[in-house]
Specification:
Helices cover 67% and strands 0% of the residues. By secondary structure, it is mainly alpha-helical. 24% of the residues are buried.
C-alpha cells in the first residue's frame, strides 16, 4: 500500500491548537502588561482593556490545553504512542523542565546579585555611575537584609510558617512517589489515594503561602527586597498551582482507569514536574528564607 506506515513514529493530524495557544498566550501577555501599566498609573495601549484582554487570553490558553492534551490522550488510546514516541515524549518533558530550571535561575540571580552586593559596588573602572538611576545603597542601606524602612520592616522567621510549608511540600513529594509505586504494582486504590492526598497537600501549600503573603512585613512595590522575594516565591507558587491542576487531571484519569503499569507517561510527567517544584522550593527556602533572613527575622 502506498500509504502504509513502515516506521515507529507518529505523524500528528492537522490541529488548530498550536496557533490558538500561541495567539492566546500573546493576548494574555499583552493584557497583563496593559493591566499592570494601568495599575501603576501609566497610560493604556491603543485603548485596550488590560483585565479583559488578559482574561480572554487566559481562557484561550486553558481551552487549548484542555483540547490539545485531550487529543494526545486519544492518540495514545489509539495506539499511536509507540515505544519510540513515548521515549521522545519523555525527552520533551525533560527539556521542558530544563527550561523551567533556567527560568528560576533568573530569579535566583536577581536575588543573589542584590543580596551579595547590597551597596552596588563595581570594581570596573568608570562604571560606578551605571549602578542605576537610584543608587542601590540608598535602597538597602548598604546591607542585606536591608535596613528597616516604610516598605520593609523585617524578613520572615524561616522556622515558623515557611518551615511548615516546606514540610507540606516534602510530604507531597512522598505521597506522589507512593502513588507512582502503587501504579507500577497495579494497586488502584493506593494510586487514587496517593494522588488525592498529593492534590490536597498542594492546595494546603497554596493556602498557607497566601496567608503568609497577607502577613508580610514588606511590600512588592517600592522596595528591592519585596520585589525579589515575591517574584521568586510567587512564580514558584504559580508552578505549584499548575502542578496541582496537573495532578488533579491525573487523579481523574486514574479514577477512570486511564493508566496502566506499562503505559502511564501522563502521570510520570506530572510526578517529574512535582518533584521539580519540590527541589526549587528547597533552594528558595534555604537561600531566601534561611540564609537571607538576617538577625532581624520575625513575624509569622
Amino acid at each position: 500500500m502506498a500509504h502504509a506506515k513502515n516506521h515507529d513514529y507518529h505523524l500528528v493530524d492537522p490541529s488548530p491548537w498550536p496557533i490558538v495557544a500561541s495567539l492566546s498566550a500573546f493576548a494574555m501577555a499583552v493584557g497583563a502588561i496593559v493591566w499592570m501599566r494601568s495599575m501603576g498609573g501609566g497610560a493604556g495601549l491603543f485603548g485596550m482593556n488590560g483585565p479583559w484582554l488578559f482574561a480572554a487570553g487566559f481562557a484561550g490558553v486553558a481551552a487549548s490545553s484542555f483540547f490539545w492534551w485531550g487529543d494526545i490522550i486519544r492518540e495514545s488510546k489509539a495506539g499511536d504512542h509507540t515505544p519510540v514516541v513515548q521515549l521522545h515524549l519523555r525527552y520533551g518533558m525533560i527539556l521542558f523542565i530544563a527550561s523551567e530550571v533556567m527560568f528560576f535561575v533568573a530569579w535566583f540571580w536577581a536575588y543573589f546579585d542584590v543580596a551579595l552586593f547590597p551597596a552596588g559596588v563595581s570594581n570596573i573602572p568608570g562604571t560606578q555611575e551605571v549602578v542605576g538611576l537610584v543608587a542601590r545603597n540608598e535602597l538597602t542601606g548598604g546591607e542585606w537584609p536591608p535596613q528597616a524602612s516604610e516598605n520593609f520592616k523585617h524578613t520572615f522567621d524561616p522556622w515558623g510558617l515557611p518551615l511548615v510549608n516546606t514540610l507540606v511540600l516534602l510530604l507531597s513529594g512522598v505521597t506522589v512517589t507512593w502513588a507512582h509505586h502503587a501504579l507500577l504494582h497495579n494497586k488502584r486504590s493506593q494510586l487514587i489515594l496517593g494522588l488525592a492526598v498529593t492534590v490536597l497537600l498542594g492546595l494546603l501549600f497554596t493556602g498557607l503561602q497566601a496567608y503568609e503573603y497577607g502577613h508580610a512585613a514588606f511590600s512588592f512595590p517600592g522596595h528591592i527586597y519585596g520585589s525579589t522575594f515575591f517574584m521568586a516565591t510567587g512564580f514558584h507558587g504559580a508552578h505549584v498551582i499548575i502542578g496541582t491542576i496537573f495532578l488533579f487531571v491525573c487523579l481523574v484519569r486514574a479514577m477512570r482507569g486511564g493508566f496502566t503499569p506499562e503505559k502511564h507517561f501522563g502521570f510520570e510527567a506530572a510526578a517529574w514536574y512535582w518533584h521539580f517544584v519540590d527541589v526549587v522550593w528547597l533552594f528558595l527556602f534555604a537561600s531566601i528564607y534561611v540564609w537571607g533572613a538576617g538577625a532581624a527575622a520575625g513575624g509569622h
